Amino acid sequence: MTGLSNKTNALINGGTSKQYHCYNQDIILTGDSYSHLGRNPLTICIAAIGQERGQECIVFATDHMVTIDIGLGREQILGKFEHDIKKYKHIPPNTVAMLAGKMDIFGILTEIPSYMEDYDKIKIQIFENFKKYRDEVIKNEVLDAFNLDKESLKLIMESNTTNPMNSITEAIVDSINKYYTNTRILLIGFDQKNQAKITEIDEYATIDKTSIQFGTIGSGYLQATNTLFFQKHTKQNSLKETIYNVFKAKSNAEVHEGVGKETELLILKKDGCYKTSTNMMKILGRVYQDELKYSKKDKRLKTLNLEKECKLC
Questions:
Q1: Distance between alpha carbon 5 and the CA centroid of its chain, in Å?
Q2: According to the model, what pLDDT value does residue 146 have?
Q3: Which of 72-86, 229-243, 291-305 has the least mean pLDDT?
């Protein structure tokens, strides 16, 4: 046990600072330096709804970046690798989960009973798995250090409602409040009416992204999100348009640290999941590069008369 034991030893021995470096490589109990970067794992996962022959489908993409962090309330990178590890998992019969965060708990979070096939039930199960995992970590890392259970902690908290908390109680509460798995899942699939669905999930909430018709998670989310907005993407876009929009969003997200250059691009339809070919990826790459170049070399730029159209102000 590493996380809180170091923290409480510091307190018991007279330490007073709230900035504790209490961590191990797998479980991070953050101090006051808890940051926005820590909330967005270094990767990118994207999904967008489009249509083919009047039927909704979902195009999704991930990178192959694997990072190693040591915590300290944020990701401090020890290594970044382009690794052939899939950041998505197919959940029968036709749901896909994408992960941004700790790969070693992906299986735990996506453990779904074989009889469960409904998208909404799978979504709720993953949310419950998040909360169960979080509770187990807090029990092992925090409560067991003091031979406490939830009821004992509740009694301690109730006894401190009128008096200031002592340093040890404060350490326990601080660790519980600020613990975060630093992991999110982007879930995609179809409901019972065969309508495409996108949901973002962590231990605190399930957020329906279907209404904006795309979703992004990971540190590159801002660039990817802005790209899809600039492309004016909607589910009325054709499948081919959606494929390019998602490819462009992934490519633009690569400017952010921790987003890998390699791209895995797939299509989820009602009858299954399809992976794009190497040839298709090359074509998409050429279109993307041409778009970047042609805007600067557009012949209409040469017609601009700077002497007449620009006046001294």
A1: 29
A2: 81
A3: 72-86
**Whole-number pLDDT of residue 120:** 97
Mean pLDDT in residue range 37-43: 69
Is 38 in a helix, a strand, or coil?
helix
Task: Determine the Cα–Cα distance for residues 38 and 67; give it in Å rounded to an integer.
Answer: 13
- Rounded to whole angstroms, how far apart are CA atoms 121 and 285? 38
Angle at 252 between CA 248 and CA 258, to 5 degrees: 130
- Strands across the sheet with 206-208, in order? 88-91, 95-100, 184-190, 196-201, 206-208
- 228: enclosing H helix or E strand: helix 221-230
Instruction: Note whether 179 and 30 are within 8 A (CB).
Output: yes
Tell me which residue has tokens 């969003």: 249
How far apart CA 293 and CA 10 sit, in angstroms, is 58
129, containing H or E segment: helix 119-141
* Maximal C-alpha separation, the chain: 81
Distance between CA atoms of residues 209 and 228, nearest Å: 13
Q: b or e along 70-95 (b: 16 or more beta carbons within 10 Å of the residue's beta carbon)?
A: ebbbbbeeeeeeeeeeebbbebeebb
Q: Name beta bridge partners: 217.
A: 45
Looking at residue 23, the DSSP 8-state letter turns out to be: B
- Joined tokens for residue 2: 């590493």
- In this prediction, residue 24 carries a pLDDT of 31
- Whole-prediction pTM: 0.81
Average pLDDT of the segment spanning 139-152: 84
Pairing state of beta strands 45-52 and 55-62?
Answer: antiparallel
Q: How far is residue 56 from each of residues 6, 97, 118, 231, measured CA to CA in Å?
A: 52, 18, 17, 19
Q: Report yes or no: 252 and 65 within 8 Å, Cβ to Cβ.
A: no
